[in-house]
Amino acid sequence: MSVFEGFRFRHVTSPIHRLDPRVKFFYVIVSFVVAVLFNQLLPLLVLFFVQIPFVLAAGVVREWLRSLRGAVFLVTVIFVFNFVFNYLYKTYTGWALVEFSLAMALRFLVLVESFSIFFLTTSPDHLSLALEQSHVPFEFTFAFTTAVRFVPVLAEEAQTIMDAQKARGLELERGNFLKRVRNYIPILIPLIVSAIRRSLELAEAMESRAWGASPKRTNLYVLKMKKGDFALITISAIFLIVGVYIYLYHFGSIPTLAHLLSR
Amino acid sequence: MIEVKDVYFTYLSGVQALKGVSLAIRNGEFVAIMGQNGAGKTTLVKQFNGLLKPTKGSVLIDGVNTRDISVARLARKVGFVFQNPDHQLFSETVEEEIAFALKNFGFKENIIKRRVSWALNLLGLTEYRQASPFMLSGGERKRVALASVLAWNPKIIILDEPTIGQDHQQKENLRQFIVQLNAQGKTVVIVTHDVEFVAECSPRVVLMADGQIVADGDAKRILTDPNITLKASIVMPQITQIFYGLADLGLPTDVIDVSEARKVLLDYWEEAKAKH
Q1: CA B108 to CA B91: how far, in whole Å?
Q2: Does residue B44 sit in the same domain as residue B108?
Q3: Does the pLDDT value for residue A1 go beyond 70?
Q4: What is the pTM of this model?
Q5: B165 and B51 fall within a common domain
Q6: Which of B87, B105, B153 to mutate to test the interface with A (most CBs of A within 10 A)?
Q7: How many domains is chain B partitioned into structurally?
């Protein structure tokens, strides 16, 4: 469950926290696009390290590291799969094979990294405000923020259920692959049932508080772009342009790390 | 026997929930662990079956360190009934729900059948044998959860907040049930902040506040001590509060039990009558 830790917002303030969520989201999309454009290790390394100043400025190093640690398992899986299949199909050999597999694993890590920065520094309230002001219907906004807000609650509940079943002698790690998957049934059923029950209760609570009574909602706080926001937009845009430019015109000439090191 | 030796526990989130707890619970004892929300009660009892392992210090169950044994193995000895039955019910029928743990522990088919019938009967659930646990009422679901643990006959039984959401009659049934289990030689540990319930059961009370044990002794002594109860932010039983109000008459203040209170008052009444 520790992977969720990285997506749990904590109320602190920093220059990064104060940025407009729309701008931050643009930045996440840019790093997403650039990460998907390249499959070489070198640009992905650059992409990985470029984000670290943000983490430091936001003061969320510990939580951020925790979410990366949570991703380690999937990163390993991605590395192993790429390594094995590219080896079998002989698309890459030797160091190039290692480097390609590493790059694929790192690409995933970069995605986790940027999304984690976004969620760690953006409060759910800010997020819904941003969506609303982007003219997303409030029903969708509300559904989205509710989903985000309940991730840690659900994670905690899953942990409790796991404890309760372990106390009844359930061993999750026992048996072959199929048995292990089936071991999760006693955890998933109570989790799903309680999620449905909770959503019904939430719906009742909302209706009793006049949900949807007025078609046009107003907000106490309104998002406004500030200097920092424009700076981040510019940086992100430059990043995107440079990324696309390299992709279009210099894609083949990106040196491999092995090549650089051997020079 | 449960031995807790200078245990510290810190959650991943950084919250330090136990700060140097030492405690010994002998076989066949009946213990109520009390204290405010967040005092560390549940964290402490989760150490007893190894769901949580101490950050520092050690917990021994019959001399075995909880660090050296899996939760599943410990569970044979330590049955843990969680607060919310909805966190564990998942089977299609009540019967299967109760058989789940027995299958996990590798009991034989015919023994499983016998134990399930026994547990159903014990908690008055026989008529719901084929019912879905999700269709039962809250109190019934709680009883199914209890039956599913008692079915494998653990030596130590831990009940986390057993009285929450139960009406008076159910509480009384539960009390009799616990007393009966205890009389059969089981170690029973309940976690609760229901002072009245504890006053009626009169077990050994371990009072916690802020991750530490602030008092440990029999219910009568702990629950009638104004300093101790204040320190742990719990209120005294209503009977005790009445007797504190009547202290001017020379009545004792260490009364927690209704029948004892009746006797004391009747004696006082007789004495007063005799004087006139």
Answers
A1: 20
A2: no
A3: no
A4: 0.74
A5: yes
A6: B87
A7: 3
